[in-house]
Structures are given as C-alpha cells and as structure tokens.
Q: What sequence folds into this?
C-alpha cells in the first residue's frame, strides 16, 4: 500500500517502512474495543440465565462498560501524551485482555459487572492511544486518507459487526466466548505493537492535572450515567435530573479550571478551533442517530420479523460493506483534494435519506425491498462522514496534545451513543404506547396492535434520527471550514490556524 503509483506523490521521506503493518495492529485493537460495545448485548440473555442475574441488575453489564469507558477517556488520552502512546497502548491491550478473561470466567453477576467495568477502564487507555498513534504515524495526505478510511470503517461499523460476531459465538459456542475472544486478539496486538510501533519517550517534567481529572471525568461519568438511567426511569425523574445537573456543574467548573491550569487535562485551544469543534459535534450527532438505528433494527429483526441472532447480525452486513466501500474508495481518495465539509454534509444528507426510507417499515416489511436499500444508503453516507471527521479533527494538533485530542473524538462518540440509546428509545417507547392506547379497541387483537405499536414507535424515532442527521450535516457545512490539504504540506500542519504548528 505504501508504494506510490505512477503520477502520485512518492512515499514520504523518512516514513517508517513498517507503518502499514503497524496500521494493522492499531486497526485490530480498535476493532476489539468497538466490538465490545455491542458484542455482549446479543449474549446478555444467556449470561443472565446462567448467572441467575436479576432484570434490575442486567443493565449494569452494559452500563459498567460505557460508564468507565466514556468517563475516563480524557484521562486515558492525557496519560498517552504524558507517558508515551505505545506504552499506554500496550498496557491498555494487556489490561483489556485480562478483564475479558475475568469476565468470561465470571461465576457471579458481580464478577461479570466488575470485569466489564475494568474493560471500560482499559478501553479508555486503548482507544485514544490507538487514534493518536495513527495520527502521528500517517502525516502524508494521501496515506493519511487511506489509514483513516480503514479506522473510520471500524469505528463506524464495528458496532454492527459486534451483533454478527456476538450472535455467532452465542449460538454456536456460548456467551462466555463473547469475552474470551478478546484474549487471543489482544495477545496478537501486543506482540505486533512491541515489534512494529515506535516508542517515543514521555514529555520531560510532565504532570497530570489531578483537579482536571476529577472534574472532567466526574462530569462525564454523571452525564453518561444520567443518559443510561433516563432510558428506564424517565427523563424527568428526580434522580436523572440530579445526575444531569451534577454533570453540567462539574463540566462547567472543569472548563473554568482548564483555562487556569498550568498543565491542563484538555487544553482549551483543542476545542476552541471552529473546524475541530464542528467535527466533534458532527461525530456526536451522527452517533446519536446510528446507535438508535442499531437498537431499533436489532429488536425489529428479531422480535417482529423473527430472525435468529445470527441472521439479524448478518442483516447489518450491507451497511458495513457500503461504509467500507465508500470510506476506502471515495472518501480516502477525495479527502486530499476537497474541503472536508464537501464530504461531510452530503454524507449526512445521504444517511438521513436512508433513515427516512426506514420510516416506511411495517410489521410485514420485506428485508430486500424495504430495509436493504435504506441500510446501503446509510452506509454510503457514513462512509463519506467518518473518514473526514477523524482525519480533520486530529489534524494540526501539536504532538503533545494528540492523545487528548483523540480522546475528545472518542468522547464525542461515547456521549453520542449514550444519548442516542436513551433519547431515541424513550421516543420509540412513548410513541408506541400512545399508538396502542389509541387503537386497542378489541382485546382479542391486543397482540397485533402491540406489535404494530412497537413498529410505529420505531418509525417515529427514526424520523427524529433523520432530523438529527440533517442537523449534523448543517453543523458540518457551517463549522468545518478547513480547506483541502495543500500539496507538499504534512496533513498534520493545517493552515492558517495558529495551533497548527507542532
């Protein structure tokens, strides 16, 4: 991949000849982290039955991971900047493997929940260090586009792949292998990282902003937990409102402290940049819609159309393949020639169009005629979106801030996933209940009306998801003002922004 074609720029001088093998290691680690956001969902009913877990505690198998992951990402990104990206990457991999083995061997619900929380802690180290390694390894615009295309496919479609892999493992082995599968992957990635990735020494005199850690991570934990509780308790529940209020206050104090700290956890110039802030917001809103889609389609395929877990997972493959094709064959090629928003805005419009097509689904919809075209259209849109978002958000950042910038991109994803799952599920449930109340005139027809109401709730929520996608496209068009990379410039030296100096 590193050999230049005729008429293209030559391989960048001083480029590491093993960088594409290093890219494979980074991609493998990122895939493992993203898969674990959904792979356990499919296996959760079996795990609950096997461990005697109550309905009230089962959600913590998911929540423990998202809380630790989303809440500690900023800390993980800054740790990568302070102690070295490769070192943090390897520690994250080793810890993730150990936590996965512990979860797979769980004998009690508490042991499984604790292992999932540990997975989240080490994922918070692993994810930002992986992205920052990618950012500092690939600086040539042509190669950067290819590398970020691969990464964006994994980040954007890995959750859908988690349903496929989780379904296969749960059906043909058992639920424990949804956790054990991480161990050999992590071992291989550690070996590759130690062999192929460069170690750069920690910054001299570097210190961790402890007040910033407590305020920032505390605020994110409260926010993510509030969204997870809103799904079951309701948005106006006092407990949920207190969580939101605590998260907002902590994050406001965090911003105030970052403007005064000598060595801030999150240097504010990272988020003050108009283009970068636009990328963060675009990413968050796109993920809000996508996680709503994953949730509704998983339940629709299995509970309405009667698909098995494996068949339901395979139904997502066209979305993944169309994302892969667009990212690698269109986004990666165009990104070095056109401004990022020329890809982002149309991508969001395409994805919104796919969501709108899905609003036509009924209890009798056909997969090939009604669902497949929409999934392909959504995949095409996301393929145009994720590559420029990841590449542009991390461009022009000083090397000492690449880890925390990567963490901020990941944080926008995680917060978006939490909002999407809670908000759109609440809309679907409320709309479905209202439909049943309005149409249930004959008790003998209750089962049919309830199923119709469920699908009606999904379609209403998908209209909201489409609107959120369009809002993301508008934000991308207005805020992401960076131009195409200039010939001869490293991709990490975006101009004319003052912070582009590294």
A:
């Amino acid at each position: 991949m590193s050999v230049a074609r005729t008429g293209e720029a030559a391989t960048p001088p001083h480029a590491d000849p093993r960088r594409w093998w290093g890219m494979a290691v980074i991609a493998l680690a990122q895939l493992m982290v993203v898969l674990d956001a959904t792979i356990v969902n499919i296996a959760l009913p079996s795990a609950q039955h096997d461990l005697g877990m109550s309905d009230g505690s089962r959600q913590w198998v998911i929540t423990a991971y998202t809380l630790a992951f989303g809440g500690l990402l900023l800390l993980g990104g800054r740790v990568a900047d302070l102690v070295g990206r490769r070192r943090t990457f390897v520690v994250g991999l080793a810890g993730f493997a150990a936590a996965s083995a512990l979860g797979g061997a769980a004998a009690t619900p508490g042991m499984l929940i604790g292992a999932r929380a540990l997975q989240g802690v080490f994922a918070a180290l692993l994810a930002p260090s992986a992205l920052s390694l990618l950012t500092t390894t690939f600086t040539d615009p042509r190669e950067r586009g290819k590398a970020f295309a691969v990464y964006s496919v994994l980040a954007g479609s890995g959750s859908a792949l988690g349903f496929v892999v989780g379904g296969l493992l749960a059906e043909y082995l058992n639920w424990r292998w949804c956790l054990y599968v991480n161990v050999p992957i992590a071992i291989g990635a550690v070996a590759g990282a130690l062999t192929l990735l460069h170690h750069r020494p920690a910054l001299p005199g570097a210190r961790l902003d402890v007040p910033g850690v407590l305020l920032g991570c505390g605020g994110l934990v409260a926010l993510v937990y509030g969204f997870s509780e809103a799904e079951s308790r309701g948005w106006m529940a006092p407990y949920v409102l207190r969580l939101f209020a605590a998260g907002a206050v902590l994050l406001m104090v965090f911003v105030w402290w970052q403007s005064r700290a000598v060595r801030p956890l999150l240097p504010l110039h990272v988020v003050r940049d108009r283009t970068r802030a636009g990328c963060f917001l675009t990413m968050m809103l796109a993920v809000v819609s996508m996680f709503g889609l994953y949730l509704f389609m998983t339940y629709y395929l299995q509970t309405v159309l009667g698909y098995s877990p494996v068949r339901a997972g395979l139904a997502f493959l066209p979305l993944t393949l169309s994302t892969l094709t667009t990212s690698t064959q269109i986004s990666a090629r165009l990104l070095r020639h056109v401004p990022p928003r020329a890809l982002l805005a149309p991508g969001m419009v395409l994805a919104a169009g796919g969501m709108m097509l899905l609003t036509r689904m009924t209890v009798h919809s056909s997969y090939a005629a009604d669902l497949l075209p929409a999934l392909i259209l959504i995949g095409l849109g996301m393929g145009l979106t994720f590559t420029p978002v990841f590449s542009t958000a991390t461009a022009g950042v000083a090397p000492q801030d690449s880890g925390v910038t990567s963490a901020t991109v990941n944080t926008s994803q995680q917060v978006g996933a939490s909002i999407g799952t809670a908000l759109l599920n609440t809309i679907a449930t409320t709309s479905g209940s209202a439909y049943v109340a309005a149409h249930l005139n004959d008790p003998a027809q209750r089962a049919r009306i309830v199923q119709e109401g469920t699908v009606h709730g999904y379609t209403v929520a998908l209209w909201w998801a489409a609107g959120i996608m369009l809002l993301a496209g508008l934000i991308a068009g207005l805020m992401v003002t960076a131009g195409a990379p200039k010939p001869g410039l490293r991709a990490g030296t975006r101009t004319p922004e003052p912070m582009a100096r590294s």
In short: The first helix runs from residue 19 to 35.
